[in-house]
Amino acid sequence: MEACGPGVSVKEGDAVIISMRYGGFAEAVLVDESQVKPLPKGMDYATAASYQTAYLTAYVALYRRGDLQPGEHLLVHGATGGVGMAAVDLGKYFGAQVIGTGGRDDKLAVVLSRGADHVINYTQADGSLGGFRDQVKALTEGRGADVVYDPVGGDVFDESMRCVNVGGRLLTIGFTSGRWPQAAVNLILIKQLSVIGVRAGEYGRLDPIKGQENRDRLHAMAAAGEIDPYISHALPLEQAVAAMRLLENREVIGKAVVTMNGYQLG
Questions:
Q1: pLDDT tens digit at each of 266 positions of the chain
Q2: Helical packing angle, 82-93 and 45-59, nearest 10°
Q3: CATH 3.40.50.720 occupies which residues in the chain?
Q4: CATH match of 53-202 with 1.10.533.10
């Protein structure tokens, strides 16, 4: 913190992190005090910058909206990305049996090493996504997943409807596949499913008290070492465009961060 106005709780020189929707690729920013929190104890800046958005999405999805319970089977699609890895991490924290899906075996090996109980490569020979239904059924003794965390959409959502347990919750996070799926209402009826939309930021804007509770709990978990975001790439601010290219080309595992002051991974 380089400077602050009168009456605020942080002080000049404090190590802090901030939450902001736009303008992060800058050497200096002006923000409201409500956007500022102390740097979690034991975290460096790059790690702290990697947890807030991804883990807030996963927390709101699994805890607030999905009501994930210990012992339930959680199917996490896109488990090799930032929001997917956060869901795997929090799924294990909440006591679930976690099945992660992704499109590359090398990336899935990282997910498995970080605590997922099972991983499935859902890239098929023709490059499309799918083919996981029977594997999920086998891993859940025929019942299917109790909760599905889906930031992918498209064919992945469609197939998830066929491997979710009776009374299951299908959490729709986004549509990285590029297609908005059309829910099969007959399956929703027969399986008594809940299809639940998740917008973590909007959740907090509509209910500021719970939104603050969410942020406070995640900050406490980070300070206690209970959150461990995975960073596969760290590039200096001057290479911010290259960092975006890594995301575009699907080379990132977990998170890529843009850094200053000569930060090095590991």
A1: 677 777 777 777 788 887 777 777 777 888 877 778 888 888 888 888 888 899 999 999 999 999 999 999 999 999 999 999 999 999 999 999 999 999 999 999 999 999 999 999 999 888 888 899 999 999 999 999 999 999 999 999 999 999 999 999 999 999 998 899 988 999 999 999 999 999 999 999 999 999 999 999 999 999 999 988 999 999 998 999 999 999 999 999 999 998 877 666 65
A2: 70
A3: 53-202
A4: no
